[in-house]
Write a structure and sequence with these properties.
Layout: E1 7-12, E2 17-22, E3 25-29, H1 33-51, E4 61-64, H2 67-74, H3 78-96, H4 107-113, H5 124-127, H6 132-135, E5 139-142, E6 146-152, E7 156-161, E8 175-178, H7 179-182, E9 201-204, H8 206-214, H9 219-231, E10 242-244, H10 246-253, H11 257-269, E11 273-276, E12 289-293
Antiparallel strand pairs: 1-2, 2-3, 4-9, 5-8, 6-7, 10-12, 11-12
């Protein structure tokens, strides 16, 4: 799976230059490589906020806790599961906050937001009509979508759909309907989805999504792991920790321990999680590490 930014740096400090290869193009600059990477990341973060029409007071999206089991029943690949989780979160966010009113979220735009080249085919089997997320009844391809939303304490989320207005649909306006926002079961006569009932869910703020998609060290794998840890927290309880051994954690997500370390180290580096590290050598009871999420 290719990332949106591929950077190679060559130190030519003796000439006062740094040579970079970005997406196959060569650039020479008098900036330090670290400064350039920081600028690229800052630009990606700001670009995402603009494309998503991000508003800092948006509470976030409640995700169904069963999503981890449902994805892992369908695929043995951690990468595929993490991309599917990130894609589902993105569409839930776009739908819940009626972002379709502000931007044309075509397939190429969605792929770019997730950090892929817009022309990649590597994730089509996950996101296409009849793909993995459709198959497990998490998404459905539709031509209608919300362009305005409101929230009622008794009724939950309320939407004004495009079809209810005189507005014309955008070209290539087919979108993904996040089914679990409306329905947690196959019965579609009761609104018991996460837009209406947050029992057995975990909350992820859009700032966390933007952070993960902006940083090359994080991406979908870290976002998926962050979600798993968050699903073990009590809502709004900052003192809650999830204690689990490294071995059990890796089995939970079908991921190699070394890869798990890579992602949890990155999450801790960017202060998205806190880990109560146990020293196994001086830990005769073999107590498990404690994990807790932090806001972005």
């Amino acid at each position: 799976m290719e990332n949106i930014i591929s950077v190679k740096m060559k130190d030519e400090s003796f000439k006062g230059l740094t040579t970079l290869t970005i997406r196959g193009k060569i650039f020479r600059t008098n900036q330090k490589g670290e400064d350039i990477m920081s600028n690229l990341i800052a630009d990606k973060s700001e670009w995402l906020k603009k494309e998503l029409h991000y508003y800092h007071k948006e509470t976030g999206i409640f995700m169904p806790n069963e999503i981890f089991d449902d994805l892992q029943k369908e695929t043995d690949s951690f990468n595929h599961a993490s991309v599917a989780y990130s894609f589902y979160y993105l569409y839930s966010y776009l739908w819940r906050y009626a972002k379709f009113a502000y931007n044309d979220f075509n397939v190429k735009k969605i792929k770019t937001i997730l950090g892929f080249n817009e022309n990649t085919k590597s994730i089509d089997h996950i996101i296409k009509k009849g793909g993995m997320l459709d198959k497990i009844k998490y998404t459905e391809s539709v031509n209608d979508y919300p362009i305005k939303w409101s929230f009622d304490l008794n009724e939950g989320a309320q939407f004004v759909m495009l079809s209810e207005t005189e507005l014309k649909p955008r070209v290539n306006s087919r979108q993904k309907f996040p089914l679990k926002g409306y329905y947690r079961t196959e019965e579609k006569n009761i609104l018991n989805g996460v837009f209406y009932d947050i029992a057995n869910t975990h909350l992820i703020r859009p700032s966390v999504f933007i952070k993960c998609m902006s940083e090359e060290k994080l991406k979908w794998g870290s976002f998926y792991i962050y979600g798993k840890i968050q699903s073990k927290m009590y809502a709004y309880d900052e003192n809650r920790k999830w204690f689990i051994s490294r071995e059990s954690f890796s089995k939970e997500l079908n991921i190699k321990i070394d890869t798990l370390f890579k992602y949890t180290d990155a999450l801790e580096e960017f202060e998205l999680i806190k880990i109560d590290h146990r020293d196994y050598k001086n830990n005769p009871e073999r107590l498990a590490n404690g994990y807790r999420t932090s806001p972005a």
